[in-house]
Each structure stands twice: as structure tokens, then as C-alpha cells.
Amino acid sequence: MDMIIEYKINAPVTTEQFLRVLETSTLGERRPVHDRARIEGMITNSNLVVTAWAGDELVGIARSMTDFYYACYLSDLAVSRDYQAVGIGKELQVLTKKQLQPGCKIILIAAPSASTYYEYLGYKSNPRCWVLEP
């Protein structure tokens, strides 16, 4: 696939664009895509959003919450199925890291099927993660 992908930092993303990339990636299966208010809150209140665009179509997103100095929680990493396996997800993470100060950690909760992907990129597994469900 011959494509030109443009990456942007904190570019405006509409709720509809965010929903579309979630639904066209595997991440939509684990996000509240039927709760528009939650999806809108998720995109509106993120303080670091790195996006990948094919023309005016959002095809990838790395959505994070961070203090930029100590910890960055990479909450969503999604790439539309038609654009997967060409390095977009990796580039979104590289660009996320470049926005952070030296020494700032990126923390994420991986989908079970993505564990080997993150290990390949240099992430270390941490058994001390705890989640308090609502």
C-alpha cells in the first residue's frame, strides 16, 4: 500500500473521528464505543494526543494522560485495520515519547493479543499494575 501518512501532535480530533478509528481497529472491542459522552470525555480531556492522518482521515491515534516529567499513561493506541502492520503504531509511540522529558516513563495496559508487540518495542512487563473497576 503506497500511502502518505502525516503525524500531528495535539491536533483537533472530533468525537466522530475518534469513534471511527476505535471501531475500525481492534481497540473498539474494549472501549465504550456506544457511550458517546464517555468517548467525548476521553478525547476532550486527554493532554497528549498524537495522530496519524491519510489525507483528512484519522487512521491512527496514541491518546495519553501525562505530567510530561515522570509518567505518561498511554491509554489508547489504535490504528485502523487497513493501515496496520506498516509501522504507524510504532511511529505514534516514538512521537509520544519525543513529547516527554528525559526519564519520563510510558505506562500502558496491553490487550492480551498485543503483549508480544510491546515486548518487541522494548516495553517491560510489570506485574504490579492494579486496576480498580468502577
UniProtKB/TrEMBL annotation:
Transferase recorded as keyword: yes
Domain N-acetyltransferase positions: 5-134
GO molecular function terms listed in the Swiss-Prot or TrEMBL record: acyltransferase activity, transferring groups other than amino-acyl groups
Keywords recorded for this protein, A-Z: Transferase
Keyword Transferase recorded: yes
InterPro entries with a match to the protein in the record: Acetyltransferase_Butenolide, Acyl_CoA_acyltransferase, GNAT_dom
Superkingdom of the source species: Bacteria
Name listed for the protein in its UniProt record: Acetyltransferase (GNAT) domain-containing protein
